[in-house]
Write a structure and sequence with these properties.
This protein is of the alpha+beta class. The protein folds into two domains: 153 residues, 2-Layer Sandwich (Beta-Lactamase); 253 residues, PPM-type phosphatase domain (Phosphatase 2c, domain 1), CATH 3.60.40.10. The strands form three sheets. It has a six-stranded antiparallel beta sheet, sandwiched between helices. A six-stranded antiparallel beta sheet has the order 7-8-17-16-13-14. A six-stranded antiparallel beta sheet has the order 9-10-11-12-15-18, with helices on one face. The protein is globular. It comes from Plantactinospora siamensis. This is PP2C family protein-serine/threonine phosphatase. InterPro entries: Bact_Sigma-Reg, PPM-type-like_dom_sf, PPM-type_phosphatase-like_dom.
């Protein structure tokens, strides 16, 4: 897909400095004619249209610790750590970065909405020109969209993001997960899952249908392929119940039925949420899971009620229906849900990471004003470091933020358990 010398600008439209429109249109028209392996060269050819001599795609690895270059023939770049590099700052802060000591280079975040994919390195003698930064930012949106649409047709992107061999159990789970971050004007949901290459039992899902955001977080028993197989069944049963229009109680009962039928000696803990993004009404079932935290005004103020149901798959041991906890959020409230791999992580002397340390970490992150995806990335990196990079269990967490532009009336201060 390389272009002959002297024709690069014409290939991409030749728009000139600050004009990304032609490059964006050319990219979207040309990309469907190539495979994922052609993306690097294709994006590079779009560079002259905005006044850039080089454009290089860097994608975050699965652990979100490194930025890995997607390179075409004849190109070379080092893998860059996210911590303590300008490229990493563009990724973490979601803002273009330009250093005086490197005047011909800018770093622009690659985003799909709020989902962070990586960064673009843009090399140009006009790197400090606001027009070039604006054009590069616009082009980066298009590059991210093309990456998403072309990635499923080959393995190059998956291979480059993996710094270690991925086990089959992890392959199953990652293949089922939704994007780690999703945002609208009034909602942000972001999640993290570790370890990346050998996960088993943890899985999550979410969906926005009209005004209702549905969220499910599951921790299946066991490890390895058996746990990931159960996780696959649990999340598929959850999606099926949701898409059939079942309410929370019947959704929990349906998943419980399928787990018991297919894996009679196993179970899964779960948190099932429904949030009305117009009113802030939150409904939740806790099926044997650690209680989620309610965060307000930059601090964790309480653990949400944990009175609920038996773990899914064990419902036949009780004749009670799952209990629904219900109440109203305040504008700006956040819900932090997690699996026990977060709080049960132990350092060398045996001390647990614990809920107090979790609350302290989140409080500090919120007070620093970090974006939600960066808060979650730093949280899981902190948990991994606490256990000397050797987690004994999956560590998964979801942060949900409700931020309506206009606050509805009549908010309650807490959540009250009600019978369905």
């Amino acid at each position: 897909m390389s272009a002959p010398a002297g024709t690069v600008g014409r290939d991409a439209g030749g728009g000139g400095l600050g004009d990304a429109g032609d490059a964006v249109r050319w990219l979207h028209l040309t990309a469907p004619r190539g495979g994922p392996d052609d993306l690097s060269a294709l994006v590079s050819r779009a560079g002259p249209a905005i006044g850039a001599s080089e454009i290089v795609i860097f994608l975050a690895d699965y652990a979100q610790a490194l930025l890995v270059p997607l390179l075409g023939a004849g190109m070379y770049r080092d893998v860059l750590p996210i911590e303590a590099t300008l490229a990493g700052r563009a990724f973490t802060d979601l803002e273009p970065q330009h250093a005086i000591e490197d005047p011909d280079r800018i770093w622009v975040p690659l985003l799909i909405g709020c989902e962070r994919m990586g960064v673009l390195e843009v090399v140009s003698p006009a790197a400090g020109d606001p027009a070039l930064v604006s054009a590069a930012t616009e082009l980066a949106v298009s590059v991210a969209q093309v990456l998403v649409t072309r990635r499923p047709y080959g393995d190059v992107v998956e291979r480059m993001r993996r710094r270690y061999p991925m086990q089959v159990a992890a392959e199953i789970v990652w293949g089922l997960l939704p994007p780690l971050t999703f945002a609208t004007d009034d909602l942000v949901i972001t999640a993290i899952l570790e370890p990346c290459y050998d996960v088993g039992g943890d899985i999550f899902d979410y969906a926005l249908n009209g005004d209702i955001l549905s969220v499910g977080l599951f921790d299946t028993c066991g490890h390895g392929i058996k746990a990931s197989t159960l996780a696959s069944l649990v999340v598929s049963a959850y999606r099926n119940a949701r898409r059939c229009g079942l309410d929370l109680v019947d959704t929990a009962r349906s998943i419980d039925k399928w787990v018991r039928a297919e894996h009679p000696n196993l179970f899964s803990t779960a948190l099932l949420f429904e949030l009305n993004r117009t009113t802030g009404r939150l409904r939740m079932i806790n099926a044997g899971h650690p209680g989620a935290l309610l965060l307000r005004d930059g601090k964790a103020i309480r653990e949400l009620p944990t009175r609920g149901a038996l773990p899914l798959g064990l419902g036949h041991l009780s004749d009670r229906l799952p209990r629904v906890d219900e109440g109203d959020l305040h504008p700006g409230d956040r819900i932090l849900a997690y699996t026990d791999g977060i709080t049960d992580a132990r350092r060398g002397d045996g001390e647990r990471f614990g809920q107090d340390r979790l609350v302290d970490f989140v409080n500090r992150a919120l007070n620093e004003g970090l974006p939600s995806p960066e808060t979650m990335r730093r949280l899981v990196r902190s948990v991994v470091a606490y256990q000397d990079d050797e987690l004994d269990d999956d560590a998964t967490s979801i942060l949900l933020e409700w931020r309506p532009p206009h606050a509805p009336l009549g908010h309650l201060d807490g959540l009250a358990s009600i019978d369905p």
